[in-house]
Amino acid sequence: MARIVTVGHALQSIYLIDRNNFSATEIGGEAIFTKLLAGSTLDVEKISYELGGSGVNTAIEFARHGHETIFLGNVARDSAGAAIINLFNRENIDASYTNVVSKKTTGTSVILLDPKNAKKVTLKNAGASEDFSELDLSDLELIQPDWLYVSTLNGDMRTLLKLFEKAKSLGVKIMFNPGPKELAETKKLVGLLQDVDILYVNKTEAANIVPGAVLSELLAHLENYVKTVIITDGQMGGIATNHEETYRFGIYEDVPVKDTTGSGDAFGAGFLAHFAAGKSFRTSLIYASANATSNVTKIGTTRGALTGVEPLHPMLIQKL
Question: Is the pTM of this model over 0.90?
Answer without folding.
Answer: yes
